[in-house]
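dude i think i finally got it to work??
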Amino acid sequence: MFARVVRTFVAIAMLLSAHASRAAESLTDDEKSAGFVSLFDGKSLDGWIGDTDGYAVEEGSIVCIPDRGGNLFTKNEYADFVLRFEFKLEPGANNGLGIRAPTDQGDVAYTGMELQILDDGHESYKDIRPYQAHGSVYGIVPAKRGFLKPTGEWNEQEVTCVGRKIKVVLNGETIVDADLDEATKDGTLDHRDHPGVKRTTGHIGFLGHGARVEFRNIRVKEVK
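look at this
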């Protein structure tokens, strides 16, 4: 009996491990050939720094813990890159994607750049500015709206940041395609100083605001 129970627990553990491995294995053969690498192993926050206590790993996903969160950054810095990831929102969820960000200089929306991750169709956000909608470069470039999947479903997003150009594709639809210099030549949309828009390299990060948001299949290709 004892041996049978042990075998059952071992089988369950192996099944869970295999599930996590499948969740972590986000790279297609084409992506591997193109030079993409995974930023998340599906099991731990190895390779990530910052507020690691505000995030947890659950079933192959990085989860922003409700009422905690904070800024979770890649250990490495990236200059020009293509980033692909999946995310899932709960109703009213708010987070952000930091790019070319410092880790120790205040609000990333200004010291680096923040791309909104937001359930922008929720009633609580009915009065937001265009530059606050999901996918927008916060305060600088507004994104096209209406392409998020319903809350509780997984969304796919790709961010290409090369030189002064930035492009965001959400669920197959281009929602941002902008030149940062052109977007700021007459000042920023929120009329605030954004020194981070001039940065040429920095960390990639998730910028929690106290809501549960899940991330998985996070991979990046550096553009040389």
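The chain has four helices and 13 strands.
im so relieved honestly
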